[in-house]
Write a structure and sequence with these properties.
This protein is of the alpha+beta class. It has 2 helices and 10 strands, in the order αβαβββββββββ. Bound molecules: FE2/S2 (inorganic) cluster (FES).
């Protein structure tokens, strides 16, 4: 059966074409502007190289943050002097976590998530432990890397 009229008018067709093109154009522009304004958004490194001197003197039972791509890492010195490095981003919905020295635990204020001193999730909604990193000292450099990543620095 052939219809004697069109289900889509010429005006509707042209409006759809025009506004579809407009939406595609502006979404590309907005994306490019976002990438320009926040270049590290969504990018995470495999390792970072820091200055050892900036971290050697932190007192026991304290945390010093370090940049981890567009997020934050936490360099934590325990009471016994041992150190660990954790990604300071909650595994629930990616809020930043804070260290609570009095309780010797990490806390996520977004939904009251708790992690123990080793970054293991112990209470609240976080489904996984905080990501922990490998720590290496090379001369005056402190290298913090994802576990399993082999870091080869260029020879100076
Ligand atoms: S984002 Fe941390 S508990 Fe929800």
């Amino acid at each position: 059966m052939k219809l004697k009229f069109s289900l889509v008018t010429r005006r509707t067709f042209l409006n759809t074409l025009f506004f579809g093109w407009l939406a595609a154009f502006f979404s590309g522009t907005v994306y490019a502007l976002m990438r320009f304004a926040f270049p590290t958004l969504g990018k995470e490194p495999d390792f970072v190289v820091l200055n050892w001197k900036d971290f050697v003197d932190i007192p026991p039972n304290s945390v010093k943050p370090f940049p981890w791509g567009g997020t934050v890492g936490l360099y934590y010195k325990k009471d016994d002097g041992s150190m660990i490095a954790l990604k300071g981003v909650c595994t629930h919905m990616e809020c930043n976590v804070a260290y609570k020295p009095a309780e010797r635990r990490f806390y996520c204020a977004c939904h009251q998530g708790w992690f123990d001193a080793d970054g293991r999730n112990i209470s609240g909604p976080p489904p996984k432990p905080l990501e922990s990193f490998a720590i290496t000292k090379e001369g005056e450099k402190l290298i913090i890397a994802r576990k399993g990543v082999k870091v080869e620095l260029p020879k100076a």
